[in-house]
Amino acid sequence: MGEKRRIEVNIGGYVYKLMGEESEEHMQQxxxxxxxxxxxxxxxxxxxxxxxxxxxxLASINVADDFLKLxxxxxxxxxxxxxxxxxxxxxxxxxxxxxxxxxxxxxxxxNYRELVEELQLEIxxxxxxxxxx
Length: 133
Description:
Blueprint: E1 5-11, E2 14-20, H1 24-45, H2 52-132
Antiparallel strand pairs: 1-2
């Protein structure tokens, strides 16, 4: 377990004492995020007349909404990454096939060149034989 840190944060005009293993900066960021969500609810609803608990619940709903949207975004990105990984594998397989085919064609080309050289030598021999006859 990590070292427990204690800090005081201001959320919605109230001071809270937090304790956690995260860095102070992280806990401050979390508190600032929640404070901002509470302020947004207060602005949108003229929440001065709403109870503190009601504002907290509405802010929690907004936080949950943000969280679920991020989860959905992460899921979409993971699916996209899986698709791209699969496509990459398919392309690598295709590349391997093409490289194998290229090697085969290069060998075939070499064989034909050797055959051409042999045939050219044979033609020269026939020409020489024809001159000598």
